[in-house]
Write a structure and sequence with these properties.
It contains twelve helices and 15 strands. Strands 2-1-5-4-3 form a five-stranded antiparallel beta sheet, sandwiched between helices. It folds into three domains: about 130 residues, 2-Layer Sandwich (Beta-Lactamase), CATH 3.30.450; about 150 residues, GAF domain (Beta-Lactamase), CATH 3.30.450; about 130 residues, Heat Shock Protein 90 (2-Layer Sandwich). By secondary structure, it is an alpha+beta fold.
Length: about 550
């Protein structure tokens, strides 16, 4: 025998923390050594590769060769004391000149053990101790099983604690209330080992459930069950009594209201309240724990999970309130902006209408009076040169009156309410054709029907101004107005094949400035593409909400 190898693998069975399993193993080996009157005692175990090794030895450091360990395992009969003789040519020769004995013990099939003693001297002398050795084997089996159970329970407790910590982190990381509630029921199933879990959210009166979030029941089964529960029977007990409820058999509880048709059978039940601040938000229900009824420890875990959920729900509700407040403020700003836009456009239209009336009533009347004066002068002007000058004056007056009527017509309200934006632009293009002879193609089918009135007015006015500029300045023979709508973006293009101009050159024209001002007012964009003798393209673009 030699000193124990420190690098030997650990057994499949006992962990080496919590209860001092090493001390227990040494005590068992020492007990065998004493009862058998042996020079050394061993507790053998199987490693992960199913090879025997020395788990504990008395005296400390005693060791057996691997070949001898394997031979001992092959020699044993189940639960019987077997004497070991150091026969030449076998692994038992590793015992040296000494004899030994061994007995197999087992806490479970996954972690069998062997008790072995070496250095008996005369084996027959120890035959009377067989019963005592068998008794030790039974006691050792019980002690090892209890230690193993303790370690497994401790491992479960540690796992649950870790799961609870992880659950709290996961729940608190989500700020959407619906997601928090769904995560809660899924986490409850996982942490408590249950098949089903649900969260019932109380109504404002606290007399029933206004929402029921569940997990574990397939969608098709849920559809077959019908509407969610309202909180009768066991689900309603927590409405009036906030103490946790544990039930081993739902069917045997007189407070149960029964299940609707197609509902899966459920046996065990655990319910705890979820209190957010000073009010009960709802109740957490779990059913059908795998492996038996819910325990007091499960109740504690459920209460802890409910407390974590309360924090997450409170955070989600605060976040939701902030989001709603921000959305309300944004809508108020949007409404204020729309109202301001409506007022600005309305003021512009009112001013245009006022100017149109003044042109008609004042300037128009003055031109009419001037025309009458020119007619009265016919009898007083006799010379040929004078009559020619009078005719020229009448022609200038007629052109001025016509231009004045056209200007007043452009300034009047556009009639958008009656005809729509596309129709109003088409009528404007028709006037251009009639007054100037310019061919104007129109394709406006893409213009949405649901544009806000201020936007329609502004777009009509900028297109009207662009067509007026073509008539006055371009010298074009052909023009076009087209519209396209893609991904909530409206684009209107006015083109001509006229003489063009340099958009970057300084200009005293008020038309382009007015167009830019109107497009900025409605949040749109405006640009001009032109070059001398290459025509002009005016582009209007605007983001619009298209239903």
């Amino acid at each position: 025998m030699s000193t124990q190898d420190e690098s030997a693998p650990r057994p499949n069975g006992l962990p080496q923390e919590g209860i001092d399993s090493s001390a227990l193993a040494r005590a068992i080996a020492s007990g065998l050594c004493t009862i058998a009157g042996a020079r050394a005692g061993f507790l053998l175990a199987l490693d992960e590769r199913h090879r025997w090794f020395v788990e504990a030895a008395t005296p400390a450091g005693a060791h057996l060769p691997e070949e001898t360990l394997a031979a001992i395992g092959e020699e044993l009969s189940d639960d019987e004391v077997t004497y070991l003789h150091p026969l030449p040519g076998t692994g038992l020769a590793g015992l040296g000149p000494e004899s030994g004995l061994a007995i197999r013990i087992s806490t479970d099939r996954a972690s069998p053990r062997i008790l072995a003693a070496v250095g008996l001297g005369h084996p027959d002398h120890h035959a009377s101790g067989v019963t005592a050795i068998q008794t030790l084997a039974v006691l050792a089996t019980a002690a090892l099983s209890r230690a193993r159970g303790h370690h497994e329970a401790a491992a479960v407790t540690r796992s649950r604690a870790a799961n609870l910590v992880a659950a709290g982190m996961v729940l608190s990381a989500d700020l959407n209330l619906d997601d928090v509630m769904q995560r809660l029921v899924e986490t409850a199933c996982e942490v408590l080992g249950a098949r089903y879990a649900a969260l019932g959210v109380l109504n404002a009166e606290g007399t029933g459930l206004e929402r029921f979030v569940a997990t574990g029941v397939p969608d098709e089964v849920r559809a077959a069950i019908g509407p969610p529960p309202h909180g009768r029977g066991l689900l309603g007990l927590l409405f009036t009594d906030e103490r946790p409820i544990r039930i081993d058999s739902i069917a045997d509880d007189p407070r149960a209201a029964g299940f609707p048709p197609d509902h899966p059978p459920m046996t065990t039940f655990l319910g705890v309240p979820i209190r957010v601040g000073s009010e009960v938000f709802g109740n957490l229900y779990v059913t059908d724990k795998v492996g038996g009824p819910f325990t007091e420890e499960d109740e504690f875990v459920a209460l802890t999970l409910a407390a974590q959920a309360a924090v997450a729900i409170a955070n989600a509700k605060r976040y939701g309130a902030q989001e709603r407040a921000a959305l309300y403020a944004a809508r108020e700003r949007e409404h204020a902006a729309e109202d301001g836009l409506r007022r600005a456009i309305g003021a512009q239209e009112a001013e245009r209408a006022r100017i149109a009336r003044e042109l008609h009533d004042e300037a128009g009347q003055e031109l009419t009076a001037l025309a009458l004066q020119l007619r009265a002068m016919d009898d007083h002007v006799t010379g040929e040169r004078g009559r020619a000058g009078l005719a020229t004056a009448r022609q200038i007056l007629a052109r001025t009156a016509a231009n004045l009527r056209a200007l007043a017509l452009e300034l009047r309200p556009s009639g958008l309410k009656e005809h729509g934006l596309a129709s109003a632009i088409e009528r404007q293009a028709a006037r251009l054709r009639e007054s100037s002879g310019i061919s104007v193609a129109v394709a406006l089918e893409a213009i949405p029907d649901s544009l806000p009135e201020p936007v329609e007015i502004a777009l009509f006015r900028v297109v009207q101004e662009a067509l007026t500029n073509i008539s006055r300045h371009s010298g074009a023979r052909h023009a076009s107005v087209t519209a396209s709508f893609r991904r909530d973006r409206l684009r209107v293009v006015v083109e001509d094949d006229g003489r063009g101009f340099d958009p970057a050159a300084p200009t005293d024209r008020l038309g382009l400035a007015g167009i830019r001002e109107r497009m900025e007012l409605i949040g749109g964009e405006f640009r001009v593409e032109s070059a001398r003798r290459a025509g002009t393209t005016v582009i209007f673009e605007l983001e619009v909400a298209h239903g």
